[in-house]
Specification:
The protein is mainly alpha-helical and 350 residues long. The protein folds into three domains: 139 residues, no CATH class; 123 residues, Serine Threonine Protein Phosphatase 5, Tetratricopeptide repeat (Alpha Horseshoe), CATH 1.25.40.10; 78 residues, no CATH class. Helix content is 73%, strand content 0%. The protein contains 17 helices and no strands.
Length: 350
């Protein structure tokens, strides 16, 4: 079977499972799901040739055929159930690995780095930290074999972010600092703003408030230069609104309730997708509860819990459980959240 036909069959097999059950979603999210279904049907059905057009000769380098789906999977990540999407990405990574093994090239290793990096992100969302760490290391290795310094920086920075998020703060900050030092001069401002924002979060977790705020200001300056270029592998703009999203999380970690709330409101459109919005809601839950507004914090956490359950994000569910562990025993303020967590284990009224 040709690379093209194998890829197309894999995509079609995964298509029916890529939608979150409607019972778990709001009306707006059901509409989003329908739109995603239409996109996937077009991408892997009638329009498949545009995405994964077969090479004229199967002996030719199939990199173009195996690299395009990764970008589309990345765009679906924030709104598609993690488990279903992970299976599609892992199958795609396996196919890509076989194809590149037969046609060793820099472009092929770049395609593998992207696929492995996405697989790592999805493993982290499932809370499978061992797999996530291995996939990130694989992604870095392939990026280095591709001899692409921007791609290597993206993957090493992503591993640094993962380390911070899983509690290995010193290792994460070391990786982020190394990535920033090794960025080439041509690196886009988006890359530097992203790294500064991630560093700010790690410094906040470390308890270094002054350096964390300086890193946030640096990120904001970079994002505000009006150079909105998006350079691969940074597929998404990292402007003021995206910076505000990271600010909201960082200020929450620093316990600055007012700044976190203002940044949350400024993040705007970047929180339209369910999973990013849920992560921001978790940050708001922590900061509001810390300011004595436990009932507001629990409402934010309950909303995040619903999204975590619907989209199979253990990252979000673990965040909710950790938040609840910081609160006193049962009270009127925590009743709704306690009920939702209990149902997660004992029932399914979602």
């Amino acid at each position: 079977m040709s690379v093209h036909n194998h890829l197309l069959r894999t995509a079609r097999e995964q298509l029916p499972s890529l939608l979150v059950p409607g019972a778990c979603a709001s009306r707006a999210e059901v509409a989003e799901a329908v739109n995603r279904n239409q996109f996937l049907t077009g991408a892997f059905g009638v329009g498949a040739g545009a995405l994964v057009a077969p090479p004229a000769d199967d002996s030719m380098d199939p990199t173009a055929a195996v690299s395009a789906p990764t970008a589309h999977y990345r765009r679906l990540e924030s709104t598609v159930a993690t488990g279903q999407l992970a299976r599609a990405v892992e199958a795609h990574l396996g196919l890509a690995t076989e194809a590149v093994a037969r046609h060793d090239s820099r472009a092929g290793h770049a395609a593998l780095a992207e696929a492995a990096g996405l697989a790592a992100w999805l493993a982290a969302d499932r809370h499978d930290t061992g797999t996530a760490r291995r996939r990130y290391r694989t992604a870095i290795e392939h990026a280095e074999r591709a001899d692409h310094d921007l791609l290597t920086a993206y993957m090493r920075g992503s591993l640094g972010q993962f380390a911070v998020e899983t509690g290995d703060i010193n290792q994460g900050l070391r990786l982020l600092a190394r990535t920033a030092d090794e960025l080439p001069q041509r690196a886009p401002d988006a890359a530097r703003a992203w790294l500064a924002s991630l560093r700010a979060q790690g410094l906040a977790d470390q308890g270094n408030a002054d350096q964390s705020r300086r890193a946030l200001r640096h990120a904001e300056e970079l994002a505000g230069r009006d150079r909105a270029e998006v350079a691969w592998p940074w597929l998404f703009p990292f402007g003021i609104a995206k910076t505000a999203r990271h600010q909201a999380d960082t200020f929450a970690r620093l316990g600055d309730a007012r700044a976190a709330r203002d940044a949350y409101e400024s993040a705007g459109v970047t929180l339209a997708a369910p999973k990013p919005r849920a992560m921001a809601q978790l940050a708001q839950a922590r900061v509001r509860a810390g300011a004595g507004r436990v009932d507001e914090g629990c409402r934010f956490a309950a909303a995040a819990l619903r999204v975590g359950h619907a989209y199979g994000s253990e990252r979000i569910l673990a965040g909710v459980r950790n938040f609840r562990a910081t609160l006193p025993s049962r009270s009127v303020e925590t009743a709704e959240l306690d009920t939702a967590i209990t149902e997660l284990y004992e029932g399914d009224s979602w």
